[in-house]
């Protein structure tokens, strides 16, 4: 069967599934894909309510969630109120202050004239950050339009924002709405059941490791799998050898926390010692104790998640688990990239033409420097005849250089316009997730570095054998492909 691009699993580091004994799954945005517009609009609204209740101007109540304002992979400079898109070399190529785009000179002065530490900025790693960051953008814009109405720094605003959005999740104002009408907020994938069974039939043990609490986890997983269970499955829990909630990732991979056993009726936990058993629900804990309890360690475990830091970087870097990153945007973007293939080919052809023009210009400039050097020598020797000839040749060359510079400038502008128009077809503000202009984005670099494999959906696993050997063909350097 020939797979569509968005159905494929992509390989950064060769991975033999035959060597994998246990596969762990995150829940939110991994097993459970969300309707981002509905969910993030809800989180935006509930967090904004807390701002106003805390004494912020009531006019903020008019702010609206904009699904096109923020994408994953951006950086938030909460000190300056800026939102940045950075390439793999930490060069800021797009930036906004609130809703105002920063031009090249501003970006250079603030970020590109000297190195800055990306780790000091907030990284938009997960979909749950989108509403948070967009609300920050809106409040920065409000502050710029209404000076003095909010007498706090951008950093203080962001501190309050983090507190209010955490409170919105903790007090149930978001989760209660989701559990009441899950179909409005969560997208059910009819292939999830068959994807899990395919892995189980290959002898893999499965576990669930999520930061969500038991009540919410049970509601979401029941919605996802409850009406698709095979005859010999009584509950969604039958798919998993272990269910771990309130996992506190990324701390799960470094802490020495004990596991708690959760009473499914009360959602209360009690300290657990000893063996972890199938059919029971555990909370907190840590990776070392999980490995000790299961006898499966390090690269015998594949962990599947959507959070580049909390799921992928931490599990790979700290406990040497193999990693699969879910990049939900791929399905949409790969379709858009197919639609813009003609523009990409036009850009590539234009870049080749520009290289020829630039080479011609450099030859003219080199010739001009050579003639200028000769003119200085002939002037020193007082050879007026030869000096006059060289002056005339230099004047002709100046005209040619000027003409060629004009052609190249216009050509560069044309290429820039084609690139920008293509990017807008993919996303109206930020362009492609994995690229910034034609360079790899910082997000793409992280995916390449830390995700052994990646795909647009966890259910794409159903297209591959549980013993599939994923092979990477991408360990190349520029000289390898010349």
CATH-wise, what's the superfamily of the largest domain? Answer: HAD superfamily/HAD-like
What is the tally of beta strands?
19
Question: What radius of gyration results from the CA coordinates?
Answer: 28 Å
- Helix fraction? 40-55%
What does this structure look like?
There is one protein chain. The chain is of the alpha/beta class. Helix 1 crosses helix 4 (154-170), helix 3 (129-145) runs antiparallel to helix 4 and helix 12 runs antiparallel to helix 13 (384-426). The chain is built from 14 helices and 19 strands. It is 45% helix and 14% strand. It has three domains: 15-33 and 188-327, Rossmann fold (3-Layer(aba) Sandwich), CATH 3.40.50; 36-182, no CATH class; 335-432. The protein has helices spanning 36-53, 104-112, 129-145, 154-170, 175-180, 182-185, 192-201, 214-225, 287-294, 308-319, 329-339, 341-380, 384-426, 442-450; strands at residues 9-11, 15-16, 22-25, 75-77, 82-86, 92-97, 100-101, 122-123, 205-209, 242-245, 259-263, 268-271, 281-284, 301-305, 322-326, 435-436, 439-440, 453-455, 469-470. The strands form four sheets. The chain has a ten-stranded mixed sheet with strand order 1-18-15-14-3-9-10-13-11-12, sandwiched between helices. It has a five-stranded antiparallel sheet with strand order 7-6-5-4-8. The longest helix is centred in the C-terminal third of the chain and has 43 residues, at 384-426. Helix 8 links the parallel strand 9 (205-209) and strand 10.
């Amino acid at each position: 069967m020939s797979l569509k691009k968005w159905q494929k699993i992509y390989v950064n580091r060769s991975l033999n599934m035959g060597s994998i004994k246990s596969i762990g799954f995150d829940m939110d945005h991994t097993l459970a894909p969300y309707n981002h517009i509905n969910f993030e609009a809800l989180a935006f609204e509930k967090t904004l309510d807390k701002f106003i209740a805390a004494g912020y101007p009531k006019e903020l109540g008019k702010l609206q969630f904009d699904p096109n304002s923020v994408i994953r992979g951006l950086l938030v400079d909460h000190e300056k109120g800026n939102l940045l898109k950075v390439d793999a070399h930490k060069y800021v190529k797009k930036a906004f202050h609130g809703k105002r785009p920063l031009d090249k000179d501003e970006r250079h002065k603030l970020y590109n004239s000297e190195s800055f530490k990306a780790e000091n900025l907030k990284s938009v790693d997960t979909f749950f950050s989108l509403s948070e960051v967009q609300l920050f953008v809106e409040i920065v814009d409000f502050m710029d339009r209404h000076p003095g109405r909010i007498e706090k720094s951008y950093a203080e605003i962001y501190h309050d924002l983090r507190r209010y959005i955490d409170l919105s999740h903790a007090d149930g104002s978001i989760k209660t709405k989701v559990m009441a009408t899950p179909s409005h907020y969560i997208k059910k994938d009819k292939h999830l059941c068959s994807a899990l069974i395919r892995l189980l039939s290959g002898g893999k043990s499965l576990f669930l490791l999520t930061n969500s609490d038991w009540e919410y986890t049970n509601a979401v997983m029941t919605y996802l799998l409850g009406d698709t269970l095979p005859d010999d499955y009584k509950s969604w829990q039958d798919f998993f050898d272990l269910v771990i909630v309130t996992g506190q990732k990324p701390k799960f991979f470094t802490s020495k926390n004990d596991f708690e056993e959760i009473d499914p009726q009360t959602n209360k936990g009690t300290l657990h010692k000893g063996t972890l058993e199938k059919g029971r629900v555990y909370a907190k804990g840590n990776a070392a104790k999980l490995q000790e309890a299961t006898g499966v360690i390090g690269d015998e475990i594949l962990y599947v998640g959507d959070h580049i830091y909390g799921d992928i970087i931490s599990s790979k870097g700290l406990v040497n688990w193999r990693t699969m990153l879910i990049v939900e945007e791929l399905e949409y973007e790969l379709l858009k990239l197919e639609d813009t293939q003609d523009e990409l080919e036009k850009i590539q052809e234009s870049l080749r033409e520009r290289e020829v023009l630039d080479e011609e210009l450099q030859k003219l400039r080199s010739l001009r420097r050579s003639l200028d050097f000769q003119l200085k020598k002939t002037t020193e020797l007082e050879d007026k005849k030869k000096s006059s000839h060289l002056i005339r040749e230099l004047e002709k060359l100046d005209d040619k250089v000027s003409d060629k510079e004009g052609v190249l400038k216009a050509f560069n502008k044309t290429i820039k316009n084609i690139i920008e128009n293509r990017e807008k077809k993919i996303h109206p503000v930020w362009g492609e997730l994995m690229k910034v202009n034609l360079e790899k984005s910082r997000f793409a670099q992280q995916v390449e570095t830390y995700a052994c494999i990646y795909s647009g959906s966890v259910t794409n696993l159903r297209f591959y054998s549980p013993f599939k050997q994923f092979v990477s063909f991408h360990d190349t350097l520029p000289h390898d492909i010349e």
